[in-house]
Design a protein that fits this description.
Order of helices and strands of chain A: HHHHHHHEHHHEHEHEHEEEHHEEHHEEHH
Helix content of chain A: 40-55%
Number of strands of chain A: 11
Shape of chain A: globular
Strand order of the largest sheet of chain A: 1-7-6-5-4-2-3
Oligomer: homodimer
Radius of gyration of chain A: 26 Å
């Protein structure tokens, strides 16, 4: 990086100037600003995934551990960024990028984000956020209404109620899930009969008070990994995050869940919360929320729904029914930076009971004074930016009906892609899309036939090789940089619980066309014919021939 | 808000258009973008705090709980924002806003933030962040070097090491402190002798394994309120967050600390961590870090330094010595959105031992695979934006020497303001600035004389009335909207431990001049003469006269 060669003592005047805004639009900074916009426009209009350069090579550009001594011209720095960072980023907005939950953003998010940065409000307290505080409360209220559909009088009473909060805005679903379980834990172990509550006395004493050996959280095997972190952080331990078996469609098996509950009771462990997943991260399936709500009620425990991905489906009057029962949840996680098309960093957890967050309320002498309107008294995080504004913008500009179209088209697109895969003899659809996520793998017709007839052992060996094929293809496709799918490991029932590696596709980008989806498949077929995969497929053939000889 | 009256079925084409960028700079969105820049420029150039409008009134603009059904023109929405939000925000960048830790931002942060939003990278995994991942690693490495000054070979080995991370980037100091204590807790209670570790088995079993009744965290009474949240979340309980007495300069009293440690030992409670504060939130003081490091070593416990505020002082070769001993800390919290002038949402925790974060490492099948470069396997948060880029930008463009000037001037400015207050007969300097934070109150010369001679009881009653004066003035000054100081409650030694209310001033904005500081004092003097405060001061006079009569 070229650095300015200034005298040892940097010029004070020029340093102050960086804190003021340029007076004229044709000032140096104004020009740089424009150049950045143009450069980004170029990047965003190229509908391809970033060109692959070896990460080890990229790392060399970011290996210096010393903070530079001398200041540097903004223009030199932006040149550096354009060359070394922007060009080496992932084009998450590309319509061919269908592997993860990060999608294109509506363009209006760019100018509106500028407001956020320029105002640099801090939502922890009203003194540094003013109108942003009632705005965030409104966003939480709107999401609460989306889930719980309470009457107008309810929101008149609670939406702007300074002593309470209908939910907590946070950086993402992980903190949202943690906040939900934190509040649930503290409510179950609240002050009573001389016990001053878990917040004060800690978990070991809380267990003594409740006369039990542990607290458990139950969720299906498809539960998000953030729940494991939460069980760890909250001190209940990952052993007590019980992973319940799922049915053929990746939904929690209620009979297994009841068995697990009975087992825990026998061990003196109390269920703290049941968690329903509304849009599993890997397969996009939705748990039977009504049945979970009923069981939670029966057990007298908290019912949380992790709808980080699927929550936005509530915006569609056509598919809202898929989440039936969510209105009975004590708390719900929704990420606006997923299917609500808001930039990264916009998670929320909503609580049915408007006083539920009292269980984690906290105060300090200089802020969050009792009775203040400060939102910081009900959040895990402290200082926070005004991201809620971008959720407000999305809801206002796109509107419920606009979101409905986006949601509906995503689900329909996923169904069409599933049909394309099912119709192709060399691919195997592993999970059907319930929302807009599906999984599949390359599995040539002749191997599929072999698998049907194979013994358990042989099938396992064939699947092992197919796993390598899937992994190789996924990596190579990412490197080719035209389209991108992700991969994960699942244990579909048809393979007797063996875990297999699959392609995972998330269809949330409104710009992804059927033509692009065809090209994803075409590219994978093409790769199947390449040396590295041919070698693997030959291995399968050898395996089959061998067993034929053995059985002959 | 005016809404577009479109047919019930919103036009699909127009919906897709919002996901694409405008082709021409003179397109509608292009013009809106420019208008926002201009409007913000107007807001940012007005050097006053936002005009006060009653919050209850503002809340009415954000009281609707229904998500709007119909889409809305972006131009209508931005008009709404300008009128109802931007104009009702707090001008945190105003040089007269000296009450909180949110300051002006260098202007270059605005165009650079645009890159962040447009690229919308997700740092949880390399597949959605590419070059942003090595860049974040570099930022963590640079901060690590700022604190620990390890040799080049150390950083060659660890900075870009895919299996480890020198720290965790997070949304702010609260999550940073929580991450530090989480890692410390899991390390102390790691797997050993058949115990599979606290992450797996939970806190109650960990205590059994360690054969103790609880884990304690010790910090001075000036410790940040986030530590209380951490003690609650981690399950150790707020009772076990021990608030240690401070000396006259708000620094932890080492004798009291040793006493508390002895008491805990007697109760079978094991010290998990000692925390040193480097820049207390209320008074900007720094604990004796070297002494704390020595004691932590003696006790065999974790030593964490909360340098969320003061950490940036390390960038000044002139004042770095104030934090001596920080290089012995096992972990250090630094917020870049404080004295490093980065927009809200940039906290970090650094660990001396490059393998320390292994204690909280986690993996999943679809991301964070073992051996991947994904930073998400070592953070509390999941999906995260690429905020590290703005820290990288600040360090590169301002440079260490630039930051040094900013830090030095802030400290010098605070000293001058302290002198101004000390020289004024009607003000009382409550805490001297060690860094750039100080506290004081309006206390007329004649009341100061009465306080010197007063009995404990009388002094307490006088202080109660003075508290009302301070509170009234602070609220009125905020409402006047020209300058802003915050307030808190402290118990300075001179009042026998009575807590008094004080003005709190944070001098981090480089644009705050001595003239502005004079006007803060002038405005407060003026308010002292107003009815509401005259009534209060009369009460003090009556109190004094009464006791004269009583003693006569």
């Amino acid at each position: 990086m070229p650095r300015t060669r200034e005298p040892a003592q940097a010029n004070l005047e020029s340093l102050y100037r960086i804190f003021t805004i340029p007076e004229a639009p044709d000032s140096t900074l104004g020009r740089i600003d424009q150049a950045i916009s143009d450069n980004l426009a170029g990047f965003l209009q190229e509908h391809i995934v970033a060109v692959e350069r070896d990460l080890v090579e990229i790392e060399r550009d970011f290996s210096q551990s010393r903070i530079p001594e001398e200041p540097m011209y903004v223009s030199h720095y932006t040149d550096f960024l354009k060359e070394k960072l922007v060009s080496q980023s992932v084009h998450t907005a590309s319509p061919g990028f269908v592997g993860h939950m990060t999608s294109a953003l509506p363009y209006f998010m760019l100018p509106l984000s500028r407001i956020l940065t320029a105002l640099n409000q801090n939502l922890v307290k009203v003194e540094t956020s003013r109108a942003f505080t009632p705005m965030e409360r409104q966003v939480l209220g709107m999401l609460h209404h989306l889930i719980y559909k309470r009457e107008g009088a309810f929101y008149d009473q609670w939406l702007q109620n300074s002593r309470h909060a209908l939910g907590a805005f946070c950086s993402g679903g992980t903190v949202a899930n943690l906040t939900a379980l934190w509040a649930a834990r503290n409510r179950l172990c609240g002050p009573a009969d001389g016990f001053r509550g878990i917040a004060q006395e800690g978990l070991p004493r809380a267990l003594q008070h409740l006369d039990c050996k542990g607290l458990a959280v139950l969720v299906s095997r498809r539960g998000h990994y953030s729940l494991g972190k939460a069980a760890d952080v909250l001190g209940i331990g990952r052993d007590n995050l019980v992973a319940v078996d799922t049915d053929e469609r990746n939904r929690i098996d209620m009979a297994s869940l009841r068995e697990q509950c009975a087992r825990l009771r026998g061990e003196g462990i109390r269920p703290l919360a049941l968690i329903g997943v509304a849009g599993t991260t890997e397969t996009g399936n939705i748990d039977p929320l009504d049945a979970l709500a009923a069981l939670a009620q029966e057990l007298g425990c908290h019912f949380h729904v992790d709808a980080a991905w699927g929550g936005a489906t509530l915006l569609s009057n056509n598919y809202r029914r898929l989440l039936k029962g969510i209105e009975r949840a004590d708390s719900v996680t929704i990420d606006a930076h997923k299917q609500m098309y808001v930039p990264m960093g916009a998670g929320m957890v909503l609580f049915k009971d408007p006083t539920a967050l009292a269980a984690i309320e906290h105060h300090a002498a200089y802020i969050l004074r009792e009775g203040s309107r400060d939102l910081g008294s009900h959040t895990l995080e402290g200082s926070r930016p005004g991201m809620a504004m971008l959720v407000h913008a999305g809801l206002s500009i796109i509107g419920r009906k606009g979101y409905e179209i986006l949601i509906d088209r995503g689900i329909e697109r996923a169904r069409r892609f599933a049909q394309m895969i099912a119709a192709h003899s060399d691919f195997e659809l592993v999970t059907e899309p319930e929302l807009n996520i599906l999984t599949y793998r390359y599995n040539p017709a002749w191997v599929q036939r072999e698998l049907v007839a194979a013994t358990a052992e042989k099938a396992a060996r064939i699947n092992e090789v197919l796993d390598k094929v899937t992994e190789t293809m996924q990596k190579r496709q990412r490197e080719n940089g035209r389209t991108f799918v992700s991969r994960t490991r699942l244990a579909p029932g048809r393979y007797r619980g063996d875990r297999i590696t699959v392609f995972r596709v998330v269809l949330a980008n409104p710009l992804t066309t059927d033509g692009i989806l065809s090209s994803v498949i075409d590219e994978q077929c093409e790769m199947a014919g390449q040396e590295e995969n041919r070698v693997l497929l030959d291995q399968i053939q050898a395996l089959c021939a061998q067993s034929v000889r053995l059985s002959a």
